[in-house]
């Protein structure tokens, strides 16, 4: 069997196993709480694993390893930002949200506000963030399959050339995520994420140990070798190869590049606690204390994983080499799988060992993508059904059965739309889509959540202003940024309508979102929507009295 | 239900689920003020602390290259140590909060909740 055959067999085993779990979970899914929140029956540890499975996307695993392998130290910034961000969730959001909400992010935002405008805004924002994130994963899956299955231009696989195989992969990923969500609901999705987290952590740990073994467990030697092979010397181990690049001839370019680094830094750390697919995970546990435990486990799991990205990235730089990586994939996403092949050849014996190791890691990468897209589909279809259908259209009068039926249909529609969009968006940069999702989450959702929970005076106008203000500012700035037009790596490299100099909008759009929420609140003549509703929210969020 | 008057603000009910008046009464109680102060007194300064500490790291990465590039041992430089310290501080803050919440938040929160939900 070739590496490709092993990958396919392993992937099919994963799919069969998770589909089995999904069908089992569907038998346990009887009411809306089961479908949206897994019956709130998961333990802190289980949910911590599932959060890890939901959060550590292909962008983390393949993307960060790739950036470190090609640009060295700067990739580490992502690892740090993605981890530190969990403190916002732990200290300010997780427990209070668990106590006051029911199924979606909007439950908390609309708690003491006018339902229709706030839920509509929250649904728009949830679906926008989730779709950007979904597209990133699906486009990534399509790009990966050609690389991982080793389909080169001119070759075919099962009669498909590389382009057809990419489209087939996107459709398959989309179909599977629809099945997981419509059949298994939150229970099925959670188990898929737990299994994935286990596989990813095991795979990364085995590779990390092998990398360190190759350098006799000496970190300095690993770094030294990576720096030497990179051709950049010590600069490879220092900040500034990719972000905050210093250009001695162009002070303005240097200034913008450094601002971009700050902008990325702030979007990474504030985005996580505004991601709807992460927030709804806190509803799957019975109490706020269990929500806290799940974040603690998640911080442990995710932190360990991001530490391992250092070994994977620098390991790939040292053992595979930047040139060999860019020869296969300019973006560097192939670094971790290629590293697996080299490690397999070294430790499992010859080409067969390399093929097996590559196959295993490739299958883990696909499992990673599947678990994340399932979480995203669930978050957006929950919001469409619970916020928009049940509370905006039906004015809160929909029955549970109707609501869950609409949620399942929504998952199908969102899945289908994502498949079509992903096929059309194949040339988009994956990291850009993820960064945009984080920026929107940090600019629109986070201000609204924090004001709702901590600011008594906050009201409907403030909530709607924060969400739309942050969302629109983030999207507009990106549209006029060098990521979309006016640079060699832009979406439209041949046109130029850019005037915003940064690729990440966070530095402007996040403060703007907070500002809009504040301004909307103090300018609106409507009194705060019922002081007794804030009393209820505050008592409930802090003590859990009356929590669902 | 005769005792359920969640939609109107009136005197706290003697039995039944918490009403709007109960929530208002609890929110105004010294016990709840103590809980709010205990929570905010920990999470706000801690958030400010880790955010500034993280911002310092990002700003030094952008503007203090000479310092960040200083080698400590072998090929390990200040930038790497600083990055790893962000991991350490995250783990430590998470652990501190967990200990603090167990000791200073949960007992008060549970007591208030129990009182609200089992009004005698």
UniProtKB/TrEMBL annotation, chain A:
GO CC annotation: plasma membrane
Membrane is among the record's keywords: yes
Keyword Lipid biosynthesis: no
Superkingdom classification of source: Bacteria
Main location: membrane
Localization of this protein: Cell membrane
Molecular function GO terms recorded: acetate transmembrane transporter activity; symporter activity
Record's keyword terms, sorted: Cell membrane, Membrane, Symport, Transmembrane, Transmembrane helix, Transport
Positions in coiled-coil regions: none
One GO process term, biological-process aspect: plasma membrane acetate transport
Entry-linked Gene3D superfamilies: Sodium/glucose cotransporter
Membrane-protein topology: Multi-pass membrane protein
Signal sequence residues: none
Pfam families linked: SSF
Stretches that traverse the bilayer: 6-26, 47-70, 76-97, 118-147, 167-185, 197-215, 261-283, 295-320, 355-379, 406-425, 431-454, 466-485, 505-523
Family, per entry: Belongs to the sodium:solute symporter (SSF) (TC 2.A.21) family.
Name listed for the protein in its UniProt record: Cation acetate symporter
From TrEMBL, chain B:
Pfam families: DUF485
Keywords: Membrane, Transmembrane, Transmembrane helix
The keyword Transmembrane belongs to this UniProt entry's keyword annotation: yes
Sequence intervals crossing the membrane: 42-64, 76-97
Annotated protein name in UniProt: Membrane protein
UniProt organism field: Virgisporangium aliadipatigenens
């Amino acid at each position: 069997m070739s590496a490709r055959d092993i990958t396919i067999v392993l992937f099919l085993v994963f799919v069969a196993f998770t589909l089995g779990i999904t069908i089992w979970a569907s038998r346990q899914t009887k009411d809306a709480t089961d479908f949206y929140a897994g019956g709130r029956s998961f333990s802190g540890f289980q949910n911590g694993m599932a959060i890890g499975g939901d959060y550590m996307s292909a962008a983390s695993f393949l993307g960060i390893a790739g950036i470190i392998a090609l640009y060295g130290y700067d990739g580490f910034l992502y690892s740090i930002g993605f981890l530190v961000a969990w403190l916002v969730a732990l200290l300010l959001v997780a427990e209070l949200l668990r106590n006051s909400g029911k199924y979606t992010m909007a439950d908390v935002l609309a708690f003491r506000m006018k339902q229709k405008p706030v839920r509509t805004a929250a649904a728009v924002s949830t679906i926008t963030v989730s779709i950007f994130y979904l597209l990133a994963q699906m486009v990534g899956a399509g790009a990966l399959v050609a690389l991982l299955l080793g389909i080169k231009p001119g070759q075919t696989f099962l009669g498909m050339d590389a382009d057809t195989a990419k489209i087939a992969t996107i459709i398959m990923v989309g179909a599977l995520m629809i099945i997981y969500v419509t059949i298994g609901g939150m229970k099925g999705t959670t188990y898929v994420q737990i299994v994935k987290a286990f596989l990813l952590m095991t795979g990364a740990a085995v590779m990390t140990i092998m990398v360190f073994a190759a350098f006799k467990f000496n970190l300095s030697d690993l770094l030294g070798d990576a720096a030497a092979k990179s051709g950049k010397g010590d600069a490879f181990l220092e900040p500034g190869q990719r972000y905050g690049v210093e250009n001695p001839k162009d002070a303005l370019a240097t200034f913008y590049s450094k601002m971009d680094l700050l902008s990325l830094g702030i979007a990474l750390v504030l985005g996580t606690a505004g991601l709807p697919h992460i927030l709804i995970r806190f509803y799957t546990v019975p109490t706020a204390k269990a929500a806290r435990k799940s974040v603690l486990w998640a911080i442990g799991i995710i932190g360990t994983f991001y530490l391992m990205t250092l070994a994977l990235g620098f390991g790939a730089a040292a053992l595979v080499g930047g040139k060999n990586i860019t020869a296969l994939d300019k973006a560097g996403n192939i670094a971790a799988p290629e590293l697996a092949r080299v490690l397999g050849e070294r430790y499992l014996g010859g080409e067969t060992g390399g093929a097996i190791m590559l196959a295993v890691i490739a299958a883990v990468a696909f499992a990673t993508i599947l678990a994340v897209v399932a979480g995203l589909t669930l978050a957006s279809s929950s919001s469409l059904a619970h916020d928009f259908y049940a509370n905006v259209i039906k004015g809160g009068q929909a029955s549970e059965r109707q609501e869950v039926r609409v949620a399942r249909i929504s998952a199908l529609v969102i899945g289908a739309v994502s498949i079509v969009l992903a096929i059309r968006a194949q040339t988009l940069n994956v990291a850009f889509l993820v960064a945009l999702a984080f920026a929107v989450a940090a600019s629109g959702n986070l201000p609204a959540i924090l004001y709702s929970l901590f600011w008594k005076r906050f009201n409907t106008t403030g909530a709607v202003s924060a969400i739309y203000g942050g969302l629109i500012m983030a999207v507009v700035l990106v549209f006029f940024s060098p990521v979309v037009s006016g640079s060699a790596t832009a979406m439209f490299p041949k046109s130029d309508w850019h005037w915003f100099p940064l690729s990440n909008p966070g530095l402007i759009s996040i403060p703007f979102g907070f500002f809009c929420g504040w301004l909307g609140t103090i300018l609106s003549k409507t009194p705060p929507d019922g002081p007794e509703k804030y009393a209820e929210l505050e008592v409930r969020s802090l003590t859990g009295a009356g929590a669902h | 239900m005769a005792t359920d008057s969640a939609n109107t603000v009136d005197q706290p009910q003697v039995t039944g689920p918490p009403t709007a008046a109960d929530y208002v009464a609890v929110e105004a109680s010294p016990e709840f003020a103590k809980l709010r102060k205990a929570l905010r007194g920990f999470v706000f300064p801690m958030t400010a602390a880790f955010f500034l500490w993280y911002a310092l790291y990002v700003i030094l990465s952008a503007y203090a290259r000479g310092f960040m590039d200083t080698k400590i041992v072998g090929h390990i430089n200040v930038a790497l140590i600083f990055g790893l310290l962000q991991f350490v501080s995250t783990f430590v803050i998470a652990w501190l909060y967990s200990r603090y919440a167990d000791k200073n938040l949960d007992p008060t929160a549970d007591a208030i909740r129990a009182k609200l939900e089992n009004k005698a």
